[in-house]
Write a structure and sequence with these properties.
mainly alpha, 49% helix
Amino acid sequence: MNRPVAIAAVVLVLVVGATWWYMSGGDGEDLDAVAPAPVVEAPPVAEPPPLTPLPALEDSDSMARELAQSSGMLGAVAAGLLEQEELIRRFVRVADAIAGGSSPASDLSALGPDRPFAVTETADQIFMDPASYGRYDGVGEAIARIDAEAAVASYRLLEPLADQVYSEMVGEERAFRPVLLRALAALLAVPVVGDAPELVDAINRYRYADESLESLSLPQKHLLRMGPANIDRIQARLRQIARLLG
């Protein structure tokens, strides 16, 4: 019970946000919003400079590492992400796992919390220890800093690479965006539980005593484990991203 899942959104910022900055020449201009030149009785309009093309998928990590830092994604969480390789492939796999209800822990092995999961016990009950929530405060803070509009504007530029990865995964040409939206919807469906949830000792693991919580998918239970304050701020930013993605 110690692998973060909402960190997928941080990967979105590190890769998508960096790409947006990179493709806009570093000034944040929304290139999709540039109006076409008038065609009737209009003065000549100079041709805009050509956009720097997206790098090949195999060469995209160095760009993501360099420009993610320029986009303000700093700190221990960002550093842990940037040390990994195949960031776009990793992001697509993580989102696909979340959308399908599977744990993405194998792609996030470097990002586990630095303290073990803890419980509190009474004579006949076991509860999640609220102190465990603090293990994920760095994740919550990093996601809360996301510029949702910039991330989604840049995703439109990144999408061909994400589509390429997903098509390779499924063996046919497929769009990745529906998968990303399902992943976001799954995380947004996680309830915010005010009190520490009661647990049941199920031999070498804990189960939630509340069946509505136990029936959540593995990724949803990972997010639930981050505590109400982190869930609130993570979901607030994911909700903005989901709305902007449509």
